[in-house]
Amino acid sequence: SSDDLGGLGFDTQTGYGRVNAYHSLYNLLYNPEAYVDVESIDFELSTESSAQEIFVIANIGETDLEYSIDSEGYSWKSSNDQNLDYEWIDISSESTQLAFSHNDYSSDESIQLEFDFPFYNSFYSSLIVNPNGWVGFGDDNTEWDNTSIPTPSAPRPAVFGFWDDLNPVNSGGSGEGYIYYHVNSDRAVIWFNDVQHWPSNFEGSIYDFQIVLYPSGDIKLNYRSMQGITNSSTIGIQDSNGVEGTLVSYNYSLPQDEYSILIYKMPSWIEISPLEG
């Protein structure tokens, strides 16, 4: 019964949205109630085999219920959930350091992937890394003051590991910390190694995290050490138009030491029908 705020659906900053008094009172009297007859569906399949499972969505409430399943949308979960563990990928012995001319400009070197990365119905074979805590598949964006997403003013298309005014070592100033990467056919890892938050406002804030891209389209954000102030950043993803996005966190102290976030979409080998009713 609430009005959605921020990114589409639930997010950690605004929850399910702003309470709507009229809808709340109406739903007390006349509310639909969704019922699904299974908690999970489990398959074990050999190669090139298929199976079908039927589940029921029922309305046991007093007014009409409409449902829709977004087969192209993204979801996320964190290592606070029981079915996701914290994971850190150590690339220290095989990584390449990126050089930056300024703390707001992406590296002159684009990173070539060893796979085509699927992202919002497009495929990308390379990416750029911006020192302000994000990787992108289009043009650079020098905006250092983070916003909520989706929005066309933010970097796009992009993955935001910790977007705000970060300050790694660069030739345009001092800075602290370095950014490394390593790519193989299994994954691409972008590592922000003890990178400084802009010291004028975030003195003593040093972050050690990585953005990991997989050929499946899965995105893993791993936070090994988050020292200091962590409540000023945008974490999530958005498409090339800044219209579709998944906001995980906006200006909220979500990341912590030894913490992982998985952003994922429905696998291509699963088909659901009908998607609405």
Description:
It contains one helix and 17 strands. By secondary structure, the protein is mainly beta. The strands form four sheets. A seven-stranded antiparallel sheet has the order 5-17-14-13-12-11-6, with no helix packed on it.
The radius of gyration computed from the alpha-carbon positions, rounded to a whole number of angstroms, is 21 Å
Shape: globular
Distance between the termini: 20 Å
Assembly type of the chains comes to single chain
Mean pLDDT: 93
The ordered H/E elements are: EEHEEEEEEEEEEEEEEE
> Spans of 5+ residues with little confidence (pLDDT < 50)?
none
With helices defined by DSSP (H or I, 4 residues minimum), what is the helix count? 1
Main sheet attributes: strand count, strand direction, barrel closure = 7 strands, antiparallel
Annotation, overall tally of beta strands: 17
Content of β-strand: 25-35%
Provide the structure class: mainly beta
The strand order across the widest sheet is 5-17-14-13-12-11-6
Query: Helical amount among residues, as a percent range?
Result: under 10%
A few lines on this structure:
This protein has 277 residues and is mainly β. It is built from 1 helix and 17 strands.
List the SSEs and their pairings.
Layout (H helix, E strand, L loop, with lengths): L1 E2 L14 E2 L1 H9 L4 E3 L20 E3 L14 E5 L17 E2 L13 E9 L2 E9 L3 E3 L21 E6 L14 E6 L4 E9 L9 E8 L5 E9 L6 E5 L6 E6 L8 E7 L12
Antiparallel strand pairs: 1-2, 3-4, 5-17, 6-11, 7-8, 8-9, 9-10, 10-15, 11-12, 12-13, 13-14, 14-17, 15-16
